[in-house]
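Minutes, project check-in

Agenda point 3 was the complex the collaborators sent over. CS summarized: two entities, 452 residues total, and the question is how they sit relative to each other. Sequences were read into the notes so everyone works from the same version.
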Amino acid sequence: MWTQFLALVWRDILSEFRAREVVVGMAVMALLTLLIFNFAFDLSGAQRVASGSGAFWVAVVFATLLGLGRSASLDRQEGAWDGVLLSPVERPVVFLAKLSSMLVFVVLVELVALVVMALLFDLPVFRPGVLLVLALGTLGLCTLGTLFSVMTAQARAREVLLPALLFPLAIPVVIGAVRAMVLELSGFGADAGPWKSLLAGFAMLFLALSVATFGVVTEE
Amino acid sequence: MTMRTGVDWLTLLGVAAFALVALSVAMIFLYAPADATQGDVQRLFYLHLPPAWLAYLSFFIIFVSSIAYLLRGSPHWDRLARSAAELGFIFTTLVLLTGSIWGRPIWGTWWTWDARLTTTLILWFIYLGYFLLRAYVADPERGARYAAVLGIVGFVDIPIIHMSVRWWRTLHPEPIVVRSEGPAMPPEMLVTMLVTLVAFFALYAFLLVVKYRIETARDEVLALRAAADSSV
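CS then shared the predicted structure for the full assembly.
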């Protein structure tokens, strides 16, 4: 089971390493979102912790959305996803592998975006508390995102459908992650505890639900 | 299908629902006293609370029938979920509209990012996604399964959304009908509220059954059409 899992994750990472169609696009999207926010809002003044955290998470959400769409579209080519489903691998393992490769991609993009944010907005982003918030928020976002991207992969107008499903349900992640990040960045990390619990609870709950329902979603 | 004679129970339910709605409208305007501070605007309350309960009740029905559909696979459960979703969407829209009209004179604004308002708005968007999912997935059986998964995930998410938004900010008054020390309003208002609630629930039950029958008929038509296509 462990080797199956690693093989599936490696499949995504290898194809990304060869084609570079997912991560590069996501990173460009994230950086451009940060850039646009810089013009739309004042990210240099005293408010830059609040608006910078907000801009960062909007960039992450958009980049994740793009990455999920790109990854699903690569899987549709030449029946790659059908091959995965036909292989004798338990469905929960397939889900966890798909989620893990997406997590790798999103975390890479987040690290790039964090460096840019630290430089452009002069914020002390590389703190353990900030990184923990990042990990928990990303896990929750990618869990629901992976489940919905598989559900919408075959649908018409999937570019519309995926955000229509993901955005409303991911609102607790956005609120929790932005609030916790603002607290961490302004030195009130101790107050971010409830938000971190919310993010962790969200991630665990929907991880369990996704694993439980993924078999139904991929039934042919 | 057997032909029935005489008056069937659905007609009775429909007549009862419309009579109750007429009675509740009369009570709202003629029997219930005007509010001491808010005046006549407060009468919107009677049309605001029942749709709110029904909006959330609908999602609960979707949740239960989604689980039943995934476990049993019977199309009855899917039809029930579809019917409840459409009604839930209408009642969620009603809550938002009546709340907005009420908020304007009392809070001085059409909209505010209060916890309950925000949660209800997000609920509205989840319903919207639910319809889009059903509309855009070509295979109906697959669409039904996906919708069931969304029905479960979405219902579980609602309390979390509410909690996160509540920590974020709040302005909406605390519940005044359901609370441990008893309702905080004069008896005439309470009676009017209860009659309106019964009327809305009767109307809801009637509409749900009618909608369910429409969905059953739709499935039959689709099956007949598919059979006709394959026999040509």
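Noted in discussion: Chain B touches chain A at residues 70, 122, 125-126, 128-129, 132-133, 136-138, 142, 145-146, 148-150, 152-154, 156-157, 160-161, 163-165, 167-168 (CB under 8 Å).
Follow-up: revisit at the next meeting once the mutant set is ready.
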